[in-house]
Amino acid sequence: MMQIGQLAKKLGVKTDTLRFYEKNGLLAPSTRSDSGYRYYSGADHQRALFILRCKKVGFSLADIKDLLSIRIDKSSHCCEDVKSRTTAKRLDVEMRIAELELFRNSLVELEKACCGGEESAEYCSILDALEEKGVTDVN
Amino acid sequence: MMQIGQLAKKLGVKTDTLRFYEKNGLLAPSTRSDSGYRYYSGADHQRALFILRCKKVGFSLADIKDLLSIRIDKSSHCCEDVKSRTTAKRLDVEMRIAELELFRNSLVELEKACCGGEESAEYCSILDALEEKGVTDVN
DNA sequence: CTTGACCTTGGATTAAACTCTAAGGTTTAT
DNA sequence: ATAAACCTTAGAGTTTAATCCAAGGTCAAG
Lengths: 139, 139
Known about the structure:
2 copies of one chain form a homodimer. The longest helix of chain A has 35 residues, at 79-113. Chain A has 139 residues and is an all-alpha fold. In chain A, a hairpin with a 5-residue loop joins strand 1 (31-32) and strand 2 (38-39). Chain A has helices at residues 4-11, 15-23, 42-56, 61-71, 79-113, 125-131, and strands at residues 31-32, 38-39. Chains A and B meet through helix 3, helix 4, helix 5 and helix 6 of A and helix 3, helix 4, helix 5 and helix 6 of B. The structure holds a DNA duplex (30 and 30 nucleotides).
């Protein structure tokens, strides 16, 4: 059994984060001392690691809450339940990547067109491009 | 001259958005009627389009505020001022893409390992991977 | 018995870019 | 003259994942 500060240190997070996870139903200490101090067990520690690993692969806390409920009752769920969530998240990530790639491509185009020198911005190609409908069409 | 609703419609945004831009110093109508109604000129419209095009290539409103100040006083700025901001934004976008690609790669690995079938999640490879230190190492 | 390191709570704050609400004023058309 | 469609304001709410703060309680060491 360890106190919140010890667990936080092991995990490399702040105690605030652990309390935040508790408030949001992700991780509660298995015991409290008479004075209210939180005490975390080895299983709590494992659960915390599970949470952090989920975060590491891109799941949101809402997703993780969902995964945790599968984790504590595996026999009521099947592989598909888990895999479908993983796939959904991957698709979500891929969509965000695609959006960012559009940004990147546009920015690269803008960079290419501009001399980037000490010349006055009076005739800057980037500003011009942002002024007209073109690569950056809005309507 | 047009009212806020007309400009919003032309731009495909809400009137709220235009008021928000005004409050944040991005776009103010050049006139107000006696009763306080906002009236936007053609130049205001152009400025709004500039803003939306900047958004479209990935600039934040803070970035745009900065670009607008260059735009209204081009002679005091040079191409490099504009290009450096564009490059900084591209690098920023590329960093975000790199992070998301790590997520995607991890998720793809997880998906590969899991059968995704009707089997009980008792021995689900995804759950197992999230339980152990591995691809998803946290410490 | 006091110091310092720990812990408790509730509530406020952060960033970004809106979006919504309430309560009311203005314009245009009939 | 009244209804519909517009406009005004201030201020609160949304999302995500914490992070910070104030005021105070607890615990081990010396």
